[in-house]
Structure formats: structure tokens, C-alpha cells
Amino acid sequence: MSRRAPGAILARLTLTAAFWGGAFVAGKIALASLGPLTVAFWRFAIGAAVLAPVWAAREGRGAAPRSARAWGGLAALGVLGVFGYNWFFFRGLALVEPGAAALVITTNPALTALVSSLLLRERLSPLRLAGFALAASGALVVLSGGNWEALAHLRLGPGAGLLGLAVVAWVFYTVLGKVVMGGVSPLTASAGSFLVGLPLLAAAAWREGPLSALFAAPAAAWAALGFMGVFSSALAFLWFYEGVAALGAGRASVFIYLVPGFALAISHALLGEPVTVPKVAGGALVVVGVVLTSLRGRKRSGARAQRAAG
After folding, report:
1. What is the distance between the alpha carbons of residues 200 and 205, in angstroms, rounded to a whole number?
2. I want to staple 13 with a disulfide (CB 3.0 to 4.6 A). Which of 148, 162, 188, 243 is the partner?
């Protein structure tokens, strides 16, 4: 379990949501000139190049798993969270607009909380349920622009199915990660999953000619891949798993509700997308919902510390 202060964990989870929000915009930029599997491969190739030396410097060989069960857990994380999630995510993102994609992805926290309560016995208290409801409502307000009928008329099509499968892969990556981190650190879990998932992405992207496509891509695509590799992958995956280790899978996942707001803010800054009253109001609801779920975790952590001191 992470030993970082609760405030640092919450700050890093918030930044993680910002980095993943930026990935929607960066992903669309990269997909304009590169195939979906090529984007996924280079994103994690860059991420692995950043994460591997950090792991070697901070933990080294002594931190590597020593049992077949632990390696099996890391292999499953790589298949689910690096290969599976990104195979479905980028193929789905290529077929739908970022806002519609974000709508599908916001089903993630609630499903994670449900699976965690069933498999890990993480408690769903009334306060946590209220926080989930507020955050989910805020996300829907942001994505609909305050027009609830717009949600019913969003054209998702087959892309939504692919994004739905991405959500399922991520939920089990998150829940399984909590189990795996009973024996390894968040950094080892993240680096190990990259090690397994990257060759699978390379094989999947082979037909798209990822190397030649990269050299032919414009500078904007290179910048988008760099952002996703360093921030949306290496840092975000590590910090998210630190949050899962410290707060639990369900509570850490609620920060994903912040992703649509960050995606819209970044889209406004880079693409000139307008900021409206529904977007601001919905963002406020999301923040309140996230705070509700997080405050409970901080209070419980403080209570445990007091009991230990006494």
C-alpha cells in the first residue's frame, strides 16, 4: 500500500484525470494521421521508455516478483489494462466523437465500485453512493450540455460497443490490480503490465506499419503521442495504481468522473470549444461528488491512525 499522505494521493489522482482528459484530445489528433493500433503502440512504447528507468532506479531487481502467481497477475494486468483496454479504446475513439466516447467511459467508476464490492468486499456506504450519484449526474450534465434529450440522440453505433468493452477491461484491470499490489508495489505493477502489454500491441499494430507511419506523421501527431506516452500512460497509470493501493479500487475510480470536464477544458484551450453554464454546473457537481467519496476515505484513514497510535 502506498505510504504517501492522503492529500498527495488525491492531488495525483486529480492530475491523472487531467492527463486522461487530455488523452481524448491528443488521441483524436494522433488518429488523424495514424491507425488506432499504431497510436496505442507508440503511446505505450513511450510510456515504457519513461517508466522502466524509473523502476530500475527506485526499486531494481530486488522488487521483481519471485513467484509464478505474481508474474501471472502482472501478465493479466498487461493483457487487460495495456493491450485490451487500448485495443478497444482507440478503435472505438476512431469511430465516435470525443464527447460521446467520454459518455461511455464515465460508466467505469460505478461498474468498478460494483465489481469491487462483489469481489473485494469494498463497502458501498450511503455517503459513497451519494458521491457516485452526484458525480455521475454532473458528468451527464457536462456531456449533454444541459439538454437531457441530447443523450438519447447521441449517435454512438459500433464505436460505443468497442468503448464498452474497453470499460470492462479497465474495470477488471483496476480490481485485479488491487489484489496484485498485495505483493508488489504500484510502480512494479505498472511497469510489469507495460512489459506484458507492449509486445501484444506491437503485434496487433504490425499490419498498420507503425514505424513507417510514424515517420510520415506530422509534428502534431508526434506531440500528441509524446503527451499520451509520458503523462497519460507512464505517470497516470502509476499514480492511479498508487490511488488504488491507498484508497481502494472503487474510491480511486471515482476520479474518472473528472475526465470529461478536463477533456472539455483542454478542448476549449486548444480547439476553441465554448465553455457554457451547463458545463460549469456539471463540473461543480462532479467535484462535489468526488470530494464526498474521498473525504470518507481520509476520515477512515485518520481513524485507523489514531487507533494505531493509541
Report:
1. 9
2. 243
285-295 as b/e: b if 16+ CB within 10 A: bbbebbebbbe
- Of 168, 228, 267, the C-alpha closest to 36 is 228
Of 212, 229, 183, 228, the closest CA to residue 63 belongs to 183
Q: How many CA atoms lie within 13 A of 180 on its CB side?
A: 32
Each residue of 182-235: pLDDT tens digit?
Answer: 888 899 899 989 999 999 999 999 989 988 989 999 999 999 999 999 999 999
Would you say 12 and 187 are in contact if contact means Cβ atoms under 8 Å apart?
no
Q: Is 113 exposed, middle or buried (0-12, 13-18, 19+ CB in 10 A)?
A: buried
Other CB atoms within 10 A of residue 174 CB: 28
pTM of the complete model beyond 0.85: no
**Euclidean distance between CA atoms 31 and 123, whole angstroms:** 40
Chain CA centroid to CA 264, Å: 16
Residue entry with cell 449533454? 144
For 127, other C-beta atoms within 10 Å of its C-beta total: 13
Q: Could you tell me if 289 and 17 are in contact, meaning their C-beta atoms sit under 8 angstroms apart?
A: no
